[in-house]
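My main concern about presentation is that the manuscript never shows what a single data entry looks like. For the editor and my fellow referees, an illustration may be useful. For illustration, here is how one protein appears when written out as sequence plus structure tokens:

***
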Amino acid sequence: MKEFPDIIAWSIPAFLLLIVLERISYLLHRDDDEVGYGGADTATSLAMGLGSVFTDLLWKVPVAAAYALLYALTPLRVAELWWSWPLILLAQDFCYYWSHRGHHVIRILWASHVVHHSSERFNLSTALRQPWTGLTSWVFYIPLILGGVHPAVVAFAGSVNLLYQFWIHTERIDKLPRWYEAVFNTPSHHRVHHASQGGYLDRNFGGILIVWDRLFGTFAPEGERCVYGLTKNIGTYNPVRVAFHEYVSIARDLRAAATWRHRAGHLFRSPGWQPAPAGDPGVAATRPVPESATPVR
């Protein structure tokens, strides 16, 4: 059984230290256009992060079993050599892009991911605001498993990707050199991803690399000041409500749906989708959503 260090767990003290240092930096100087920190908001983000540590342990059991079965069925094997690791990380980042994009455009997936977008602030503590229903991403990495990448390697590559993304959740870093901004995900790109303006919605899905967004037409540069949060903010710091509010909204829409086609739409179409009013032959609206909270980035 392959084992790799849990780099996320080992990094938690560094995460907390950097959050404290960023908070102090706001006390020393804060630009007019920066949102900064809020006590209740930060506490919620930390609570969501702590909760995700425990819930992820539960989700890992069925996911590991499914991956192990698929890995046993495929005859392919990818050796972990010095030259193969960059390719594995590249392939993982490619799968992450599609997973992330899918979690924005499919409502039942968005119900999990919306947690990460629920803060109206953008700082390092926001990076720790993670969902408690983390069983929605694993299918996007099946191609890696079937391609012969060991499940433990896939998990480790995912941790590397997640670790990279911590530092890009900040307003304290302006744009980086042009060559870096062209290839890699940066705080500037990720601020756009967390913004709620219409032109910024569903943009910049990349994890480590921003090239996928440039290739597949989802890139948007940072221009106007970003307004963070959801298009309809939930107005609560209760971690339980933050974790499950969109599932509640989905259940409400399913109960009110008139047909099975509408129920499928509430589950698998975009977060803002609503069926057209009776007698209206027009296309169903996709944004904004009336009751449930919608994307923001």
About this structure: Residues 41 and 237 are 7 Å apart (CA to CA). Residues 7-216 form one domain. The chain has one domain: 7-216. DSSP finds eleven helices and no strands in the chain.
